[in-house]
Amino acid sequence: MQWETVIGLEIHAQLATKSKIFSGASTAFGAAPNTQACNVDLGMPGVLPVLNKEAVRMAVTFGVAIDAEIGQRSVFARKNYFYPDLPKGYQISQFELPIVGKGEVDIELDDGFCKPVGVTRAHLEEDAGKSLHEDFHGMTGVDLNRAGTPLLEIVSEPDMRSAKEAVAYAKKIHQIVQYLGICDGNMQEGSFRCDANVSVRPLGGPLGTRAELKNLNSFRFLERAINIEVERQIDLIEAGGAVVQETRLYDADKDETRSMRSKEEANDYRYFPDPDLLPVELDADLIETIRSAMPELPDAKRLRFAEVYGLSEYDAAVLTASKDLAEYFEQVAKVAGDAKLAANWVMGELSGSLNKAGLDLSESPLSAETLGGMLLRIVDKTISGKIAKQVFEAMWAGEGEADQIIEAKGLKQITDTGAIEAVVDGVLEANPEQVANYRSADEKKRPKMLGFFVGQVMKQSKGKANPQQVNELLLKKL
Amino acid sequence: MHNKTISELALGLRVGDFTSVELTRSYLDRVSKFNNELNSYITVCEESALQSAEIADRRIRAGEAEPLLGIPIAHKDIFCTEGVKTSCGSKMLDNFIAPYDAHVVSLFNQSGAVMLGKTNMDEFAMGSSNENSYYGPVHNPWKLEAVPGGSSGGSASAVAAGLCVAATGTDTGGSIRQPAAFCGITGLKPTYGRVSRYGMIAFASSLDQGGPMTRTAEDAAAMLQVMAGFDPRDSTSADQPVPDYMAGLGNDLSGLRIGVPKEYLGGGLDADIEASIQLALAEYTRMGAELVEISLPNTQLGVPTYYVVAPAECSSNLSRFDGVRYGYRCSDPKDLEDLYKRSRGEGFGPEVKRRIMIGTYALSAGYYDAYYLKAQKIRHLISDDFREAFKKVDVIMGPTAPSTAFGIGEKSDDPVTMYLSDIYTIAVNLAGLPGMSIPVKPVGGMPVGLQLIGNYFEEAKLLNVAHRLQQETDWHSATPAGFE
């Protein structure tokens, strides 16, 4: 039988507000346990929530970016359940009237095609704290620093048909929220979390029973977990069994998913509108203001890069993968005055060096201005591309700007025809045999043989001779 | 001294007849003399009260003349008070020292009022008799075997017996007005949103409202002046200007249209209570007011609607009392579930558990539409009844409670009869309107309350209407025997 996979994702993006969604406590990551939890976050008797307007603005920004319906009136609801890291015994979330309604994003597939994926809704909610099970000798510690951190839960339609599509969609949302500056996208710190609803069905048949996969804290795990879950479900059905609706935890070490809780044990969350909070009424002006201040989004930027800078589709996609990279590239291109050259160096030498050093672009020892300044010297022929690699390494090592390094190391390209001619003459004189061979050789073989002379000239000039002039002179003299 | 009003006492303090320390001392003496038999206070703050009084005396000598400066008051133990036990009448919070002041408490602190202590109440404000307190029942100073009403029964009996000048209370379904009626004092539940709920331990968030409990309407005006106002920490607090309540007290009542709901008078109402109410209404017509018969057709739906909405909200509001961070925790929990079950099972009393269960049921999948949603719809109908009525009248009047204070133990086995004692007060909370209870002619030696209901944010009008009656009659100045 031919099986079809059906996937929907629930993504929790932590909004990059300075304070929590319903209190004034800081949202900064990494503080000592329970030092960033005020009376409201601790669920003290008598405290009340007050909505952070910045979280609302960020949610609306996301809605506008994916061209979604914006709920002019949205309502906060209580999701009731007991857990030690949930101080009030309920989570303030949105249920019937979310702030962002139906929208859509396009994902690019390997075959170059675009596929629209529906976003069912996105709603605001508060995060819970963290239960810490290690180091407490049979007890559990609770850290409420994270309690009350604003989250935007983005729920997709079950539109994805493979793990690859799911990853492409997750990456797309990741890219959008980062572009909008509403989420830092840090998956290790839990700022961007994915849960996947996965089911299989005979091709074109009715939807199968789904399992919800949790603990997918990287795109690689997301893909892996879906693939092994699909395999598990198909094996199960083909062996005559049935998939049960349940939550399954992905264990990266064992490379398996295992049952956390089944639907029978699931809570009745007893949602009802939170009487402590008024409905959020958005006025049309706010939405318009957000719309007009919308930054350029990844798709638009990618198209512009291809069109304005003449980059290939692939290069444009790579360079717009993150807003930081795109901005870095544009600055390099501006300083150097040559976009293709800038693209090659950013994607090649720079990315390679960052990878090797395990650094993020934001930690790069080279500013866009520094790199662009060096490329400018290639453009104005002060150095050759080959010498530039030497200069790049020196800059990377912190030896200064390109011009200083070129000067200090005497790397300036020799463009004086007379000086190059002298070296060329010397090389031809020292290798009469090769000269004779070249002259008697077949036209077709000559270009290859020319390489020998070029190499010798470059070696003698310590790489500084302008390669183009060397070529021209050699051809003339041979 | 304990029979004087706030303005009389404030004058005495200013002219130097007595100091705040002397005044506070005399109230503390009365508390230590009478609290054993009344059980009005859960916590008495002798030391800090005398300290506040000293500070108030210094401010008075420096020429400050805030209306409540140096006046000894008490707070219902539902308001969080920093550094002071805040029990909410429950074993669950018997060990709870609040880490912050409720908005209302800090307003009174700023006004220079002296906090004598925290008053007894039904556990988590759930009750109409004050029999549901972990700290034992409160006694009615008019008759010690009778209940003081609830849930603000401690505040009501303390004011009536002269164990404080005035007190705060909270009213979710009548919890200020009904005990005010039972104890023969003045009680005002303001419009929902008029007084900040920040730091007031939540029972039913969409109904809870704090207000003053006093000897006179004039005192209530002085207290409300301090309590009322917008608080950015409470999203349901109203950003509306606060009028000068004292300034409105002299207004003439001629032409005042008083609506008398036919559903409130006649029918099943006790004839003696009805006579008392009619006597007060006659007094108003004598002052130039006009009586208009009105109808509030959904009156009988108030109690059942309330007993879905309030328990639903409380079932969620009380989830935070789980034995994890503060409050009561059972000994030796075996695991998490055991910790929850026994901490809550042992920490909450029977009425609280009953309401949590009712509310949990009403919000459950499959029942939500039939109970909670339907109740919310009826709530709109009830509000509409009042909206219609206020097109024709300025204020609505009727009894506060269907009977005078009943005996301790008399209704405690029958929750439904107990719930029905709030039939006249509950609709006001469901609609979010301001309501007031003032003493009228007693029946059988026990106080009777006249309920005044106003339109939204018309507390000033209610206070004036109440004050005028108290200028013309002396029902409000009666003092229970033994507490003169």
Automatic annotation (TrEMBL), chain A:
It is an enzyme of class 6 (ligase). The keyword Membrane does not apply. Its EC number is 6.3.5.-. GO terms for molecular function: asparaginyl-tRNA synthase (glutamine-hydrolyzing) activity; ATP binding; glutaminyl-tRNA synthase (glutamine-hydrolyzing) activity; transferase activity. It catalyses: L-glutamyl-tRNA(Gln) + L-glutamine + ATP + H2O = L-glutaminyl-tRNA(Gln) + L-glutamate + ADP + phosphate + H(+); L-aspartyl-tRNA(Asn) + L-glutamine + ATP + H2O = L-asparaginyl-tRNA(Asn) + L-glutamate + ADP + phosphate + 2 H(+). InterPro entries: Asn/Gln-tRNA_amidoTrfase_suB/E, Asn/Gln-tRNA_Trfase_suB/E_cat, Asn/Gln_amidotransferase, Asn/Gln_tRNA_amidoTrase-B-like, GatB, GatB_C_1, GatB_Yqey_C_2, Gln-tRNA_amidoTrfase_suB_CS. Pfam families: GatB_N (PF02934), GatB_Yqey (PF02637). Residues 327-478 form the Asn/Gln amidotransferase domain. The keyword Nucleotide-binding applies. Keywords: ATP-binding, Ligase, Nucleotide-binding, Protein biosynthesis, Transferase. GO terms for biological process: glutaminyl-tRNAGln biosynthesis via transamidation; translation. NCBIfam families: gatB, PRK05477.1-2, PRK05477.1-4, PRK05477.1-5. Heterotrimer of A, B and C subunits. Allows the formation of correctly charged Asn-tRNA(Asn) or Gln-tRNA(Gln) through the transamidation of misacylated Asp-tRNA(Asn) or Glu-tRNA(Gln) in organisms which lack either or both of asparaginyl-tRNA or glutaminyl-tRNA synthetases. The reaction takes place in the presence of glutamine and ATP through an activated phospho-Asp-tRNA(Asn) or phospho-Glu-tRNA(Gln). Belongs to the GatB/GatE family. GatB subfamily. HAMAP family: GatB. This is Aspartyl/glutamyl-tRNA(Asn/Gln) amidotransferase subunit B. It comes from Sedimenticola thiotaurini. The gene is gatB.
Automatic annotation (TrEMBL), chain B:
SUPFAM superfamilies: Amidase signature (AS) enzymes. Transmembrane segments: none annotated. InterPro entries: Amidase, Amidase_CS, Amidase_dom, AS_sf, GatA, LisH. It comes from the Bacteria. One of its GO terms (cellular component) is glutamyl-tRNA(Gln) amidotransferase complex. Pfam families: Amidase. GO terms for biological process: translation. The active site is at K76, S151, S175. It catalyses: L-glutamyl-tRNA(Gln) + L-glutamine + ATP + H2O = L-glutaminyl-tRNA(Gln) + L-glutamate + ADP + phosphate + H(+). Residues 22-463 form the Amidase domain. One of its GO terms (molecular function) is ATP binding. Keywords: ATP-binding, Ligase, Nucleotide-binding, Protein biosynthesis, Transferase. NCBIfam families: gatA (TIGR00132). Heterotrimer of A, B and C subunits. Belongs to the amidase family. GatA subfamily. Allows the formation of correctly charged Gln-tRNA(Gln) through the transamidation of misacylated Glu-tRNA(Gln) in organisms which lack glutaminyl-tRNA synthetase. The reaction takes place in the presence of glutamine and ATP through an activated gamma-phospho-Glu-tRNA(Gln). This is Glutamyl-tRNA(Gln) amidotransferase subunit A. It comes from Sedimenticola thiotaurini. The lineage of its organism: Bacteria, Pseudomonadati, Pseudomonadota, Gammaproteobacteria, Chromatiales. The gene is gatA.
